[in-house]
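pinging the channel bc i need a second pair of eyes. not urgent but kinda urgent?? the chain im working w is below, pasted from the shared doc
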Amino acid sequence: MSEQTTILVVDDEPAVVAATVRVLKSAGFEVLEATTGAECLEVARERRPDLVLLDVVLPDIDGREVCRELKADPALRLTFVVLASGKRKNADDRVAGLDIGADGYILRPIGNRELLAWIQAFVRISSAEAALRRAQEQIEQRHALSVAASLDGMWEWDIAAGTAQYSDRFAELLAHRPDEVPGTIDFIRSTIHPDDAEAMWATVERHIEDRSPFNVECRLRSKGAEYRWFRVRGLAQWDMTGRATWMAGSIQDITEQKTAELALRNAFAEIEQLKDRLRDENIYLREEIKSSHNFDEIVGQSEPIRLTLSKIEHVADTDATVLLVGETGTGKELLARAIHNRSARKERPLVKVNCATLPRSLIESELFGHVKGAFTGAFADKVGRFQLADGGSMFLDEIGELDVDLQTKLLRVLQEGQFERIGSGETITVDVRVIAATNRDLHKAMSEERFRPDLYYRLAVFPIEAPPLRLRREDIPLLAWHFITQRQGRLGKTFQSITTKAMNALIEYDWPGNVRELENVIERSMILSPGPALLLAESLTMPSQSHRPATFSGPLEDVDRAHIVGVLEDCKWKIKGEDNAAERLGLKPSTLRYRMKKLGIERPPRHPHSVGRVLSDSD
C-alpha cells in the first residue's frame, strides 16, 4: 500500500491496548486508541481508520452495537471492522457479530505472531475490497454520464426488400460519413467481430421466429479498423401470416462500460484468489504456531556457530538457493527460519515440507497441488506448497529422500519457476526462494544414481553447515540454562544451579542427537530433580574419547556468570523495558541486579557484539 494503514484499537483494558499497539506499530501500522464505545465512534468518524479492532465487552456500549453504528455510517463504508472476544467456547457471539456486519472475528487469548498474521490478512482483504468498492462506484458514475451524454445510432431493415437505412449518428459512431454507409444489411454484417457474428445472428433469428427479446452486446468495427463494444437492440414487425417483414433498432457505444466491467471482473477474480491465498496462508500459519517449538532463538558463542551465523548474514538478503547440511538435531530448520527472517521475503510465509515424512504417493500433491478429480480421493482442488509460498521461501527438509521422478519437477521449479498441478495442463508461475536441508551424503547418493547431479548443483549454490553439538561444547552451559529458564515456569519448578557433576557430564557427552537430545535430557532431568540444583536424571553413556572438557573446570558460578553476561550483551545490557535481559532470564529486575552484584558483573564501557542466540530447533 502506498499510504500507511491506520488501525483503531478499542479495549477498556490498558494492558491489552498497550500490548496490541506495540505489536502493530512494530509492523509499521499507524495506531489509534479508544477505551469506550463512544470514544471509538468519535475517533472513527474523525479519523476514518482503515481497520477497527473492537473488543466486544466495553464499559458503556456493547461492542456489537458499536459495530452496527460503524457499519451504518456511509462515511465509514470502507472501514473494516474486526470484533475481538475472549469467549472461545461459544460460537454464538461470533455468528452474531458477523450477522450485524463485522468483517472478521478474533478469539482471545492470542499470541503476538498469530494476532499480527490475522491483522495483516484482514488489512490486505480490507484494502482489496475497498479498492473494489471504489471501482464499482466509479463505473456506475461513468456509466450514468455515458448514458446521459450519448445518442443512440438508429437503423431500419426492410427484411422483404433486403435494404437498410442508418441514421447519421449510426454512421458517426462507426467513424463514417453518412454518404459512406451503403443502404444494405450487409454493411452491418461486415462490421461485426468474427467471434460475435454467430451469436448475433442467432439472436436475430430467434427474435424473428419466436419473438424473444433482441438485445445483445457485440463488437463492431469502425472505419479505422478499431473494434468497439455496442449494445444492439431491435424489434421486428410481423404481417398477418406471422412472417417478419421489417425490423428497426439502435446501437449504443458501451466500450468504456465493457472495459470497466472487464477490469472489475479481473479485480473480483484477483480478490477471490487473494482471499483463498490468505485463507490458506492463515491456516498454515495457525498450524505453524500450534506446532512451533518451545524455542525460536539461536544461542551460542562458539566459533563454529559464529561462522554459521556469519554465512547466514551474508546470504540472507540475496535470493540464492541455500543447502543446509548437518546431522539430525543440529537445528537446520531454525537456520532456514533465520535466513528467511533476515531476507526481503520475511513478510511472506516460510512454508516447510519434510520430504521424509510424507508418503511417496502424496508428496507430489503436497508440493505442487492437484485439481478436483485428478486421482481417487481428490474431491476438491488443492493448492500446493510451492504456490502457497509464492513471494516467500520454501524449506525442503530431508531433500535427499525425494523420489528421483519428483527431483526432475523440482529442478524445473528452480530453473524456470514453473510447474503444473496434478491433473491440470495449466502452467503456474511462482517466485519462491528455496532453502533445502539434508543429513545425508548427497555425493554418495549421486554416485548411486539416487540424486540428480544437476539438482544438487542447483541447490548447493550456497551451502551452510549446521555444526554438531560435540564441536561447540562451550555452548552447552548456555544451552542448558536456556532450556531450564524456558521450561521451569511450565513445570512449576525453580532451579538456581546445575551440579558440577551434572555439568561435567553434559560437556563430556558426545551428543549423537545434538541439541535436540540435550533439550530432552534437560527436560527429563527437570521433571525428576527436586531442585533447586539440577541433577541428571540418567547417566550419559558414550563419553567423548577425543574431546575432553577443557573449558569447564571452575565453579558453577563461572557458568552462571557467563550465561547472564551473554544474555545481557544480547539485550544490549537492558534490565527493564522492551526485550530486556531480566524477562529473558525469567527473573525480576531487582533479582537480576542482586545476582549481577553477587557475581561481580558490571557493564563494560565498550563491549563486542555478542551473538546470543540458541541453535535449538528441530530439523
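so The radius of gyration is 34 Å. and The chain has a mean pLDDT of 82. — does that match what u expected or am i reading it wrong
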